[in-house]
Amino acid sequence: MPRQKISVKLDANNIGPHNGINQIKFSDEVDSNKAIFYASNGTGKSFISRAFRLTSVDKSGSNADDLLTLGQASGTLSLKIASTASPLDEKKLSISVRRSTPAVVQNDSGFIFHVFNSDFVEENIKPRDYTPDGNIEGYILGKVQIDITEEKKREEKLKGKIRAKDGAIDVIVENAKEELRDKGILPTTNEFSLIEKKRLRQSEVIDNVQSFEDIVRQLELLKRLPEKIPDISNPALSVNASVFDEIIKLLATSYPKSEWDVEFVSYIKKHRSFIENGLEVFSDTERICPFCKQSVDDVALGIIHNYKAFFSDKEAEILREIEGKTSAINEIIENIKRFGRETKTANAEIIKLQKFFPSLENTTLAIPNCEDTAFDCFNGLVSVLRNKSDNLMNTDFSVQELVAECKKHTCNVLQLQRSNSSIINTVNRTKQNTNAERLQLRRNLCKAQYLKVSNALSTQFKEIDSLTLELNELQRSIVEKEQQARISKKEQVYETLKYFLNRFFSGKYTIDRETFQIKFLGNNIGQKASSILSDGEKSIVAFCYYLASTHLHLSREDDYNRLFFIIDDPISSMDFHFVYAVAQSLRDIKEWFGINTYDRMWVFTHNLEFFSIVTRNHIINRAYVMKPGKIDLLRHQLLMPYENHLKDIVDIASGFQQPSHTSGNSIRHVLETVCKFEYPEKSLEAYITENETLSNNSCIFSLCQDISHGNVRNQPPFSPEVIITACKAVVEFMKVKYKGQVDAIQPKVVNGVA
C-alpha cells in the first residue's frame, strides 16, 4: 500500500537572514518527512535549528533576541504538516520572538523536537570537558501494568505507624527546645539546631561537656564576676640570636698581637670604662684633667696619648668587641630570667580567673627553666670569650656544642613566649568579653541537652528504624514490580551512548555505566577527555550524546513515535570516515529508538560530501538546496566535488553556462582526479602532455596552473573564448576515456530549454 503524501510548509520571517525578500516560504508534498538541506555558510540554516530548540522544556520562557534579524523587533517561524488526504487535520508549530521578551512557542503538532546544533554542544557537553552527564533520574512509562494494590495498602499502614512514632518524638524534642529557651538560649545559637529530630537520630559525636545542671550553675556564677579586672600583662622577651654566630666567627679568627706592654694592657682592661670616658671629655689644648681639674704635665700627657693610641689600635677594637659579645650573652640570660618571673605572675592571675570562666579551666602558661644550671652553656661561652681576650691569636676553641645548646635553649624560650602570648591574648579576650563566655556556656548547654535527649530517644529511634527497614523492603518489592512497567532513562541513555560510540570508534572509546566517563581502550580518562579527544572525536562524542539524550525528553514509551529530529551540521571537524559513519548512523535512528511510524528528520549541512553520501546511499531521499529567500528541491544527484566540476565544464562546453573565475580550477580538479585514478605517481603536466587531445590545446595546462592558483592580476589572463575551447577539449577527452561520466551529467534539452 503506497504511503500517503504529506504536505509540509515552513515559513521564517525576520529570523536571522530570513527577512524581506529573503524570508523563507517553503512548501512541498513528500512521501516521508525526512529531508536533508544543503546550504552554504551564512544562508541561515543554523537560525532555523536554533528556533526549533525553543520548543524544548529547558528553553521555556527564555529570550531569543539573538535569533532576530538585525534592526527587527520581532520575528516568526511556523511549521505546518498535514496529510494530503486529511488537509484539515493539520499539525502546527508557531514560534514568535519579540525583542527583550520571552519567546512564545505554540506547539500543536504533537511532535517532540530534538535539536542538535552548536548550541546543544556548548550547553550540554563542552562545559563538562566532553564527559556526558550521568546524573540522570526518572523513567519512561511502558505499556505493561501490574496490580500492586495490596502492597500499596500495606505501605500506607507502615507509613502511618512511622508517622505516629515520629509525632511522639516531635513532642519530646519540642519540650527539650522549650527548656533551653527558658534558660535564655536563643534559637539563633548554632548549637540550638542540634535539638532536631534528624540530628538526634544521627548520634553525632559531641565534645566532652559537663552535665546540663552543672552548666546552668556556671552561668549563674558568671553573673557574679567582679567588674574592671585588669588585663594580664604579656611577658616580653627580646633576644639577639645573631650574637652566637658572631661569637663563632670571632673565636675562629686569629688577631695579631700589638707590641704594648703587658702590664699596660692589663691595666687598661681593668679600667677600660673609666679611661674611655675620660678620653672622651679630655681636651689636648686645655690640658686640664676632667676629673680633678688640675693641670696635666708632659708626663701625664704622654700617658694619655698612649691611651689614645691603644684604643685606636686593632687589639683594643677586638677587646671591645669581645666585651660587647660578653655583655650580649649576659643580657640574654637576664632577659630569660625576667621573662620567667613575669610568666609565673601571669599564670597566677589566670588561675584566679578560672573560677569565673569555665572555659579557662585547663588553661595554663608554660614556665621556662630559669635554674642556674639552665645557663651553664651561656656561662661557658662567656668563659671562652675571656680566654680569647687574654690571647687574641688563639683560635683553638671548641664551642660548637656550647653555641648549639645556647641556640636551642634560646629558641625553646622564644617558642614558649609565642605560645604563651597567644594564650594570654585569648584569656584577655575571654575576660573582656563575658558575653562570649556566656555564649560558650550556652552552646555547651545545648550540647548537654542533645546528649540527654539523644539517650532518652534511643529506643524510639530503633523502633522507627525497624519499621522503616520493613517499609523499605516493601517499597523495594513494589519498585521491582513497577520496573517491569517503567524504563530507566539513565539505562536507556547509557545503552544508546554505548551503541553509537562503538558504532563510531569500534571499541577505542567506550562509556562507564556508573560515572558516564569516557574510557580510552578500557581505562577511564576522567576530566582529561577534552585534551585527549581530537576535535573530530569531540564532535562524534557530542553527536552520540545528542542521540542518547533523546530519552531524556520522553515520558511514555509511545513518545518515541512523536520524535522529530532536527540535526544541524553534525560533522564539524571530522575526517571522511567519521563523516561517512555519521551518515550511516542516521539510518539507524528509526530502528534503534523503536519508532514504528514514520520517522521524522531534517538534516542541515554545508558539507557537500556529507550531503552526497546521505542522498546517494538513500539514507534520506528528499534533498534540498537552501538559498537566500528560498529552498529548492535538488534535481540531480551529482553532488561530489569531482562531478560538480565536471558538470561546470560540460555546461560551459555546451553553451549553457559562461566561464567564471572557477573554471580553471574545475579543469584542474577533473584532470587531476582522472590522472591520479590512472597513474597515482604521474604528474599532471606529464599526463596532459601524453594525451593528444589535451596536449593539442596549448592553454589547458596554463589554465590549470594559472587560473586555479591565487595570483594578483590586473586583467583577465584568458578570454572566455579560450576557456570555452579548453572546456570542449576536456569534454572530448572525457568522452573518449569515460563517456558514461559525461552522459550522466549532460544537460537534457526539452523544447530548447536545459
Describe this structure in words.
- By secondary structure, the protein is α/β, with parallel strands linked by helices.
- Among the domains are: 6-138 and 559-633, P-loop containing nucleotide triphosphate hydrolases (Rossmann fold); 641-745, no CATH class.
- It is 50% helix and 12% strand.
- It is built from 26 helices and 16 strands.
- The strands form 4 sheets. It has a 6-stranded mixed sheet, with helices on both faces. Strands 2-1-4-5-6 form a 5-stranded antiparallel sheet, with helices on one face.
- Strand 4 and strand 5 form a beta hairpin.
- Helix 5 (212-222) packs antiparallel against helix 13.
- The longest helix is centred in the middle third of the chain and has 40 residues, at 314-353.
- It is flat.
- 28% of the residues are buried.
- Residues 308-312 and 749-754 have low confidence and may be disordered.
Strands, count? 16
CA radius of gyration: 49 Å
Overall CATH class of the domain at 6-138 and 559-633: Alpha Beta
Strand order of the largest sheet: 7-13-14-3-15-16
According to CATH, the homologous superfamily of the domain at 6-138 and 559-633 is P-loop containing nucleotide triphosphate hydrolases
Tally of helical runs: 26
| C-alpha termini separation | 35 Å
Task: Give a quick rundown of the structure.
Helices cover 50% and strands 12% of the residues. The chain is built from 26 helices and 16 strands.
Question: Which helices and strands appear, and what pairs or packs with what?
Answer:
Elements: E1 6-13, E2 24-30, E3 34-39, H1 45-53, E4 74-83, E5 86-98, E6 104-107, E7 112-116, H2 118-124, E8 139-141, H3 149-182, H4 197-202, H5 212-222, H6 242-251, H7 262-270, H8 272-281, H9 298-311, H10 314-353, H11 376-390, H12 400-432, H13 434-456, H14 458-483, E9 486-488, H15 489-505, E10 509-511, E11 518-520, E12 523-524, H16 529-532, H17 535-548, E13 563-568, H18 576-592, E14 600-605, H19 608-616, E15 622-627, E16 630-633, H20 641-653, H21 663-678, H22 684-690, H23 692-695, H24 700-706, H25 720-737, H26 739-745
Parallel strand pairs: 3-14, 3-15, 7-13, 13-14
Antiparallel strand pairs: 1-2, 1-4, 4-5, 5-6, 8-9, 10-11, 11-12, 15-16
Helix pairs in contact: 3-13, 3-14, 5-13, 6-10, 10-11, 10-12, 11-12, 15-17, 15-18, 18-19, 20-21, 20-25, 21-24, 21-25, 25-26
